[in-house]
From TrEMBL:
Domain GmrSD restriction endonucleases N-terminal residue range list: 126-245
Name by which UniProt lists this protein: GmrSD restriction endonucleases N-terminal domain-containing protein
Domain of life of the organism encoding this protein: Bacteria
Family annotation (InterPro entries): GmrSD_N
Pfam families the record matches: GmrSD_N
UniProt source species: Acetatifactor muris
Length: 269
């Protein structure tokens, strides 16, 4: 009877070498898509790579596009963690310098979140005509857009350019019975009011009103893709946080108006 061949167990170094070779093989598929590096490391440098505990550059390949890292990683092992040695072969963009003073605290507004969904201009207009939108809650500014601003918005639609996101506050059933409106406009007041004005033939674009448009141009207008978020079951304090968060970036509204909204928020603390 033939004896069963017993495979020799690999040493730690042999296992590490296998990991390294697998990594080198896999990186070949990514190589055509790796851009020219904008920063470099040297062999022996300690670097940061993902959640790996320790990483040291062992080799540099393809003019700095790829790094071979000898690492110390941690296995959680169901609550009984242990460290082990391993290799990683990584694109340069995933290898970062070690930072010893990473004690920043920039994050804000993590208690508020907006989930956007894909919609159309027609669907947004329907919310106004069928359910009602309050354009003048006490935190909103007035109507400040001029004719040129409105024409630029319509120009973007007919040229298939993104016109930004819209945020609505979904009013509670109790408030709906009291106010007869289902929504408040939190972000996008000037844009949405312009869309309504054009749709109602109160605003012309290049001398033409909505009713004057061809069938194709009407479809381009009503079917233009937009992103909409609806905030439900929230209190006034959170609404004001949303408002300030959305209007502090980009070319925002007048700073004095934002200061007034901040005072409203501070009064609720």
């Amino acid at each position: 009877m033939a004896k069963k061949k017993v495979e020799k167990e690999l040493s730690v170094e042999e296992k590490l070498q296998q990991e390294k070779e697998r990594g080198l093989y896999q990186i070949q598929r990514e190589l055509p898509f790796i851009n020219t590096p904008s920063y470099f490391f040297n062999v022996g440098d300690k670097v940061s790579y993902g959640a790996i505990k320790e990483s040291v550059v062992e080799d540099i390949l393809y003019d700095g596009k790829v790094y071979v890292l000898r690492c110390i990683a941690t296995n959680n092992n169901y609550g009984h963690p242990y460290d082990y040695e391993t290799y990683r072969v990584a694109s340069w963009v995933n290898v970062r310098p070690i930072c010893h003073n990473n004690n920043t605290n920039f994050s804000e507004n993590q208690d508020v979140r907006l989930d956007y969904y894909n919609s159309t201009v027609e669907s947004l207009l329907r919310k106004n005509f069928a359910f009602g939108i309050d354009f003048d809650p006490d935190y909103q500014r007035g109507y400040v857009w001029e004719q040129n601003d409105k024409e630029l918005l319509l120009d973007s639609i007919f040229k298939n350019i993104d016109i930004g996101k819209f945020v609505l506050i979904h009013i509670s059933d109790k408030e709906w019975h009291e106010r007869g409106l289902s929504y408040e406009i939190l972000d996008g007041k000037q844009r949405l009011s312009t869309l309504i004005e054009f749709y109602e033939n109160k605003l012309s674009y290049k001398g033409k009103y909505y009713n004057d448009l061809s069938g194709m141009d009407k479809r381009v207008f009503t079917e233009h893709q937009i992103a909409v978020a609806e905030v439900r079951e929230t209190d006034k304090k959170t609404v004001l946080k949303y408002f300030l968060m959305l209007n502090r970036t980009g070319k925002s509204m007048d700073e004095s108006h934002l200061v007034e909204v901040e005072k409203m928020l501070d009064s609720m603390e």
